[in-house]
Specification:
It contains 6 helices and 3 strands, in the order ααααββααβ. The chain has 125 residues and is an alpha+beta fold. It has one domain (17-115): Arc Repressor Mutant, subunit A, CATH 1.10.10.10. The longest helix is centred in the middle third of the chain and has 13 residues, at 47-59. The chain is globular, with a radius of gyration of 16 Å.
Length: 125
């Protein structure tokens, strides 16, 4: 028997199933040229928190920042496994199913910040 959504709790619950790291990746796949300020606003966290998350994702090779003039362009490695032992069977690409359709975001035809390539041996031990 399915539980009605209204019985689960309000839409403004204090917690979610996805982390802010996942939300940052989803935002940057959908708009690889997004400003940190815009990502923070979309997620509802501070710019400083987004900067920290971006730095962590870069450090672990999930994200690559490419400088283009005065702007950054982000490339997401969707081929890498998720980090937790209970999630390692999934890839970053599996998170993208949680991204709303482009038509709802008004940003184009599909994921454009995606970089799929085999992981380098020993890159994520």
């Amino acid at each position: 028997m399915a539980i009605p959504i209204s019985a689960v709790g309000p839409a403004t619950a204090a917690w979610t199933f996805l982390t802010n790291h996942a939300f940052v990746l989803i935002c940057l796949v959908r708009n690889p040229e997004a400003r940190i300020r815009d990502v923070a606003s979309s997620i509802g966290i501070t710019e400083r928190a987004v900067q920290r998350i971006v730095a962590e994702l870069e450090q672990h090779a999930y994200l690559r920042r490419v400088r283009e003039g005065r702007r950054n362009r982000y490339e997401v490695r969707t081929d890498l496994p998720l980090r937790h032992q209970m999630e390692r069977h999934c890839r970053v690409a599996d998170l993208l199913v949680f991204a709303p359709p482009d038509s709802q975001l008004g940003i184009g035809d599909g994921p454009v910040g995606v970089v799929e390539r085999p992981a380098e041996p020993g890159s994520l031990a």
